[in-house]
Amino acid sequence: MNRDLASPAALYAKGALFVLLGALAGGLLLARSPSWTNAALLALCVWACCRAYYFAFYVVEKYVDPSYRFAGLWDFAGYLRGRRRR
Description:
Layout: H1 8-32, H2 36-64, H3 73-85
């Protein structure tokens, strides 16, 4: 049984909820300890995680191993683990 989320409206809602959750978490972190240093570190953390996610899916699939498709970060970790054993 295929349980993939396929509705465009549901996908947009899911994306909006992720943005809301991230903004809320970041806002609460800065509210607890407001400083320019913390804001800069939080922005750097978000940027680095986004780049790592982009690397895990786009760069690896397009340039490193075009034959492999990842379904999530656990699949990517398994791919890396299996690749090191070879």
